[in-house]
Amino acid sequence: MHNNFIKHFIVGLIIFSNFSFGKEFDELFTIYEPIENSSKIEKSINSSFNNMVYRLSGSDSPSNIWKIINSGVTRKDFIISYSIKNIDDLSYLQVIFNQDFLISKFNELSIPIVGYSRPVIFFLIEIDSGSVSPYFLSADQSKNKIDNIFTSVLKSISKNRGIFLEIPIFDLQDRQTLSNMSILSSPSEYISSKYEFDELVKIKLTNLGLDNWQITGDIKSSLNSENLKNDLENIFLEYVQSITDKKLNDLKINTNRTVDTLVSISGISSYMDYIDSRDRLSKFIGISSIEILSLKNNIITYKIKTLGDMNTLINEIQNNSFLHITDSDSSKINIEYKK
Hints:
Elements: H1 2-14, E1 23-24, E2 30-34, H2 41-57, H3 63-69, E3 79-87, E4 90-97, H4 99-108, E5 117-118, E6 120-128, E7 135-136, H5 145-161, E8 164-166, H6 172-179, H7 187-192, E9 199-209, E10 212-217, E11 221-224, H8 228-249, E12 258-266, H9 271-283, E13 287-296, E14 299-307, H10 310-318, E15 323-328, E16 332-337
Parallel strand pairs: 6-8, 6-9, 12-16
Antiparallel strand pairs: 1-5, 2-4, 3-4, 6-7, 9-10, 10-11, 12-14, 13-14, 15-16
Helix pairs in contact: 5-8
């Protein structure tokens, strides 16, 4: 569990607004909530539910939480199971929520939903402390206090809001290439060209001497060494929260509207292919119902009712590695199933 969590975090941190490169957030309905001891389970359950609502709605407004509670249900009604897990020598309450019940309640209360497809925001953060050569923050290097400020914020928001906030990871070849670059070269272009993302954020933190620091790029601010840690954390946290809100807001599904779409899936050569492809479609949050219309020449055609509009369905399909859109128009989508 320890190694899997580290791997998941590094991959999640390295790789995240355009809709062309969202990724599926696999554990969308599982929350890992810090817990002090077993006597604090009730508190952690309440907190995990709040974070689940924030994650699914794409908004950290508490009004959605109270809408749900005031509808006559309790937080525990939405929980399938929970257990205490030890991760990095810290205790977490792993809470698994009921996807179908949550979605039905969101629909009932007209709360917008953000599906499994989540944006990827890639952060290029250059640090020039004056004491060592300037470097780009990466997931594979030893962390100092300044590095930890950035990575802690990214990890926390990524986990709580269900969004991919990533920084690079450098192999030996990358480090050699970067160290050999001339002043006419662009390290940021070299690094960013190796990754796929929806939005690129560039930030540089520079020590100007005399206790003065400066942030430039997509964040612009001046800092004092005396309050560097707190001020840097607050400024970066506010920026990341702002960009997260914007990107998730762009992906919200309007639960008050539905549209019927014909979806044809080719490449279905066995019963297991049918089951797997249908399961993948059923997992999409935007789909409220699926009806088989025909099966001919290894092609299955469905009539699918989708929340929001047709773009909701297209967006979710595009970000599934087993389903590839080959053609679409205003009422039909053709898909190739890939094993």
